[in-house]
Specification:
Layout: H1 2-29, E1 48-50, E2 72-73, E3 83-93, E4 95-101, E5 109-116, E6 122-128, E7 137-141, E8 148-158, E9 165-166, E10 168-173
Antiparallel strand pairs: 1-3, 2-9, 3-8, 4-7, 4-10, 5-6, 5-8
Length: about 180
Amino acid sequence: MRKATVTMKNHRIAQLVGAIVLAFSFVACARVPIGVVGRDNLALNKPAFSSSIENDEHTAAQANDGDPETCWRADDEPEDGPEWWQVDLEKPCDLAGCQIRWPYAGKRYRYKVEGSTDRQHWILLSDQTNTTATAPVHDLKFQQARQVRYVTITVTGFDEGCWASISEVKIFGREPATGELE
C-alpha cells in the first residue's frame, strides 16, 4: 500500500514539473524585444501615414491596428523614390526598439528606421538596408532614440515576388530610470 502512495505522489510531481516546463517553453518562445518586457505598443492605433497605398483595403493604418492579418501595401509603381510608412506617437518618447512583421516569410526586405521630434530632422534608429534576414518578424533594438515622436520605416529594397508592405509595427518605449517620471 505504501508503494502505491509514493507512486501516486511521484505521478503528481511529474505532472506539475511537466506543466512548469511547458509554461517556461511558451515564455521562452514569446517574441519580446530585450529590455522592453511589460511595455505597451506605443504605435497601436496611432495616426499612420505612407508614401502611397495600393487600395483602400491596405491603408497605412493597417500596419499598426494590432491585427497581423491586415497590412499596409504601397502602390506597385513608386513615383517619388522609395516607399515609406510613418506613425505619429502623438508625444515625444524614449524608444527601446520596435518589431516589424513583414507579410512574406522567406523574402528579404531591406529598410531603414528613422525617428524625429518634428518631421523635419531625422535620426537613423536602425539601418537594415543590407540585411540578409528572411524571417517575417524583425525585432530591432534602438540605442539613441530619445524624445522621438515620429517613426518612419523606408523600404529600400525587397526580393522578387513581394512589394513594399508591412503587416504590423510595434514600437516599444524605454523603462524610465529609478526616480524618473514617464
